[in-house]
Amino acid sequence: MSFISRRNLMLAATGIAAFAAAPRIAFAQATAPAAAAGPFSVPPLTYPTSAFEPHIDAKTMEIHHDRHHGAYVANLNTLAKTHPQLGTSAVTDILGNLNALNDDIKFAVRNNLGGHANHTMFWEIMGPGGGKPEGEVLAAIDKDLGGVEKFQNDFDAAGGRQFGSGWVFVTVAKGGKLAIETRPNQDNPIMDGKRALLGNDVWEHAYYLNYQNRRADYLKAWWNTVNWSKVAERYAAGKAGMLGV
User: Fold this and answer.
1) pLDDT tens digit sequence for 82-91
2) pTM of the model
3) Torsion angle (degrees, nearest 10) of CA 182, 183, 185, 186
4) What is the pLDDT of residues 1-48, one digit of tens each?
5) Sheet holding 178-184: strands in order across?
6) What's the CA gap between 20 and 14, in Å, rounded?
7) Rounded to an integer, what distance in angstroms lies between the CA atom of residue 22 and that of residue 173?
8) Helix residue ranges, H only, 42-132
9) Can you list the pairs that 219-222 forms with residues at least 24 positions away whose Cβ atoms lie under 8 Å?
């Protein structure tokens, strides 16, 4: 083989390699939310993304927080450019009155603001070394949900039954009464005039890297990530009718 033909062969191989790599690069860029300045922002985590291993792996936490939640926020900031009232109204007021929105933005607000509210709550009620329910929260679980073991089993069963994407919540009413409920997609109890004490994300992006289709295993493992001190704070606010998202 001549020097020229070898050179041409090497160039061709380099071109093929570059072409093969290009789709992967494009895909990685497409999955990251575009930066969009505006009134909404993703709350920073108060713990490292590796805080919950082996129950939730660091890569899942990173993708979930930065990309998925980030995409909802980026979409909201884009919407707020033409609908500035979204950035000046309380999240609870908007989600609690979706029918007051124009039809051209109602669906997008429901999904993206619902996703923002759900995930803001999600990061807040998680934390390493979260302990166990006690005090008024434990008393309410015993009274309304049949004790901790039954409550967790019923919560996990409800999350497992949620068809497709969605959430499983514990709602807290003014006065402190608890109930287990599920919602599809990024719907939030606020949309029905209720408040979420805590909730678990059962969209596949929350667990698929580690658990694949084993949602039941993820639901059971997730209890190791709950910060019960933060849940107690939310319960006090909910009982007083002062809980936000």
Assistant:
1) 999 999 999 9
2) 0.85
3) -110
4) 333 344 443 434 444 333 333 333 222 323 444 456 899 999 999 999
5) 178-184, 166-172, 196-201
6) 10
7) 52
8) 58-62, 70-82, 85-88, 91-95, 103-124
9) 219/155, 219/156, 219/159, 219/160, 219/168, 220/156, 221/55, 221/56, 222/55, 222/56
